[in-house]
Each structure stands twice: as C-alpha cells, then as structure tokens.
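Journal club prep — side note

Before the paper discussion, L.F. wants everyone to see what a predicted structure for a comparable chain looks like in token form. Sequence:
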Amino acid sequence: MSVVDVPEAVTRAHHEEWARVVASLTRRFGDLDIAEEAAAEAFAIALDDCDSAFLSVDVDVVDPGMAPGTGTPEPGGLTGRQLLDAVRRIAMEVPLAGIDVVEVSPPYDHAEVTGFLANRVVLEALSGIAWRRKNAASADGGGHAPDAPLLSHRGPESD
C-alpha cells in the first residue's frame, strides 16, 4: 500500500499519470545530493575573496499562507520550516559578519505569524553562529572545559 491510497475507480491511465507526477516531484525535491552540491557551490561563491558574509533574509520568500505580513507576497514560496533549516545551515557553515530580516509588515499580519517567524529566523542564525564559534574554539584547543569556572580564562592568573 502506498502513502496515498488511490481509489479503485481510478483508471490505469490516471494511475500512470499519478505515478509520473510523483516521480517528477521526487526528481525535483527528493534528490538531496543535488541540493547538497548546490549549497556547497553557493557557499563557495559567497565566500570567494572574502572572510565572511552578511546574511539578509527577506521574509517574502516564504509562502503567504505561512507569512502573510509582507509587502510583496510570493505564492508558492518556501515553508517556514524550509527557511529555518536554510538559515541554520548557512549560519553553521558560513562565517557570518551580520544578519538582518527584512520585509516584515505587521499591518498585513492579523495573527503576528510573520513576526514570530522573523524572530525565529534570528534565533536560528544566532544559534548557528554560536555553534560554529564553539566548534572553532574547540578545534583550536580554546574550548571551555565544562568543569572549569565560566570566566576562568579572564583576569590575573592565580596558582
């Protein structure tokens, strides 16, 4: 039994058409290897001849059903989850100099959903930046030992 139960009344032609559509969607969205390669190439281009990048997140990239509070809605856009995953990955893999979130328009959003999403975008970016810095410090031997006092590396050395 498939994920979608096709009624028995559907003819063979319709079933074949359904199979073709599912195969097409799988080719476009299910091939994670292609997405990984594209992301790696985009990160390399973004960091070409520079030490860090600035991340600007335009909320109107999200489908208006999930983020209606924007000046220029884009039907068929990303889901909120896709945006959050992308921002987290970028913040974890690319050294960021800064981030902003634009095109949030509260008057167009009766339930403040867009504002909540924009807030979460910033939190995901900050957590990704913190994760990246923590891993960089650990790789350099400068990571914080969990059993040591938090500020033990500051101030005069005591024996």
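L.F.'s comment for the group: Strands lie at 53-58, 96-102. Keep this in mind when we get to the figures.
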